[in-house]
Amino acid sequence: MATDLPSKNSKESKPRLVNQIFCADAIEVMKNWPENCIDACITDPPYNIARKKRGLAWAFSAHITMQSDWDRFINNDYEAFTQAWLEQVCRVTRKNGNIFIFGSYHNIYLIGALAQKMDLRIINSIIWAKPNAQPNITCRMFTESTEQIIWLCNNSQSHAAKWTFNYEEAKKLNNGKQMRNFWSIPTTPASERKLGKHPSQKPLQLMERLVKLTTKPDDLILDCFAGSGSTLIACHKLKRRFVGIEKDPNYCAVALARLRQLQG
User: CA 264 to CA 257: how far, in whole Å?
Assistant: First the structure.
């Protein structure tokens, strides 16, 4: 099922994809798309955190932080799943297009290893530091207050070239200095969760920075694990086209409601 959202761009070259949310399995949806139809991908895949039947809990509370089935894999299924969706993303993204993948220590090393195995060019890793991160749930280690974002160029190590990086815009955002890859941005505020929330929902401040600095106006941006739609909203606000895929119908509804509210 695809949900259309109105676009003011009369020059759409990909009308079947532009400004839509597909409520379905990401891999199956992308299999039906032509090669090189996407300019860039920014996505936040399952982290494989909810491996325990009951999920992850906070030591001082009955609150369960992650117990969703979509984030639970067994044996080697997660590696196979990750390779399958990454291969599809690389197929549909144009050569030298940017690919950004969020992760934590639970999965980021596997994703990086698979990217190297696929001979993809790793441009940078970005560290998202959360000054208001939730306290550690076990009290047996340091508080986990960062996530990583792998920046890939969709080409081989030897042929990658001319990826998009809006260097001057980055300097403007950083008081005229080169921007570093350590970004201190608070977690998603309550104001962005009024229409519903996702357990790994990213703040718009973070997503808008990624979109603004690494894509161009009118680019078509894919988020194949769209969740509650933060990537799509950032694209709409910054005059980029978007296409999202989200398997859970509840999160699809939240993303659609947020986009419609933004459009007025």
Answer: 11
| 3-state SS class at 113 | helix
How many Å apart are CA 182 and CA 192, to the nearest integer?
23
Q: Give the start-to-end residue ranges of the domains of the chain.
A: 2-7+14-263
User: Cα–chain-centroid distance for residue 221?
Assistant: 10
Backbone angles phi, psi at 191, to 5 degrees: -65, -25
Residue partners of 194: CB distance under 8 A and separation at least 6:
none
Contacts of residue 63, defined as CB under 8 A and 6 or more positions apart, other chains included, come to 57
pLDDT tens for each residue of 184-239: 999 999 999 999 988 899 999 999 999 999 999 999 999 999 999 999 999 999 99
In CATH terms, the fold of domain 2-7+14-263 is Rossmann fold (3.40.50)
CA distance 201 to 63: 17
Q: What is the mean pLDDT of residues 54-71?
A: 43
pLDDT tens-place string over residues 49-60: 655 454 444 343
